[in-house]
Write a structure and sequence with these properties.
Elements: E1 2-6, H1 11-14, H2 19-26, E2 27-28, E3 37-42, E4 48-52, E5 59-60, E6 76-82, E7 87-91, E8 94-98, E9 103-106, E10 113-117, E11 126-132, E12 140-142, E13 148-152, E14 161-167, E15 178-184, E16 190-191, E17 196-197, E18 201-208, E19 216-222, E20 225-231, E21 235-239, E22 246-249, E23 254-261, E24 270-271
Parallel strand pairs: 1-3
Antiparallel strand pairs: 2-21, 3-4, 4-11, 5-10, 6-9, 6-11, 7-8, 7-10, 9-12, 13-14, 14-15, 15-23, 16-22, 17-24, 18-21, 18-23, 19-20, 19-22
């Protein structure tokens, strides 16, 4: 298990960053490697972003020394969405089978969390987001048919998409974590445009279902000081509350969004007019 630490960045600093510096602070390039756990701790609301690909063995979340905790989830909650082949998340002896795009919410105080794939030739790709928690709720497996589903967009704007709100106040009780996945229809390439910010929450995007030669151009920054990063399959981005978060792909794709912060209101957004973008 490896963990990388990212500090919070003031928007004034971002105005002078070149491409390499932007990517170093906000892009998580390596998430999914065979038989490895890659974690990134961000000081944006102290979230942890991670990728786990068990192939030949079961992989377990271990206590991270910097947390000063007896186990990984002593003071944290956890959301996991499977982006690959079928697999199992085991929490304190209970097994949760996850097909592609299914999720599990894991409660604070869970002592043991491990991951395995059903088929090493089609390994699971477990994407996880963890946030600090103040109370213990119930660990819940969340198949897609339990999600709050929202269809948005129109073909003329190339943004027809389905949002699956899996870890959401209307689906499962959590402390602050909100998480789900958005799937774009074939021929649609834009997400979250017109864009918004929400200063009360940070957000993270993980793009997936992109062919090797496809990319997403992800836009971030203050509305009048936008920047972009070129993102490949299985990479994630950290988005501060002051930043827009939107993307356009060279073809259709899917992504996982996750939020943590002061509230859990999905529609709490400060919308940005197209004319105000620079």
């Amino acid at each position: 298990m490896t963990i990388d630490t990212r500090q919070a960045v003031h928007p004034d600093a971002v105005r002078s960053m070149d491409t390499a510096t932007l990517r170093r602070h906000f892009l998580i390039e390596t998430l999914f490697s065979p038989d490895r756990i890659h974690l990134t701790l961000s000081h944006l609301d102290r979230v942890v972003i991670g990728g786990i690909v068990p192939v030949t063995r079961t992989l377990a979340l271990e206590a991270e020394p910097s947390f000063k905790a007896a186990c990984f989830l002593e003071r944290r909650e956890l959301g996991v969405i499977n982006l690959g082949g079928p697999g199992v998340v085991r929490t304190d002896g209970v097994e949760h089978a996850l097909a592609k795009r299914e999720a599990v919410y894991v409660a604070m105080g869970t002592q043991q969390v491990s991951f395995r794939s059903d088929d090493p030739d089609r390994p699971a790709r477990f994407y996880l987001v963890s946030a600090p928690a103040h109370a213990r709720f119930e660990t819940v497996r969340l198949p897609l048919d339990k999600a709050k589903t929202v269809s948005l967009g129109e073909p003329a704007k190339a943004n027809v998409r389905t949002i699956y709100q899996l870890i959401h106040p209307e689906v499962v009780q959590t402390c602050q974590l909100v998480m789900g996945t958005t799937v774009l229809e074939s021929g649609s390439i834009w997400n979250t445009m017109p864009c918004h910010v929400h200063d009360r929450r940070m957000e993270a995007y993980c793009y997936y279902d992109l062919p090797e030669d496809a990319r997403v151009f992800h836009f971030m920054g203050e509305p009048d000081q936008t920047r972009h990063m070129v993102v490949a399959d299985g990479q994630a981005l950290l988005s501060p509350g002051w930043s827009i978060h939107s993307g356009v792909g060279t073809q259709s794709y899917a992504f996982v969004w996750a939020m943590a912060g002061e509230n859990q209101t999905f529609t709490d957004m400060d919308h940005v007019a197209m004319a105000d973008l620079r």
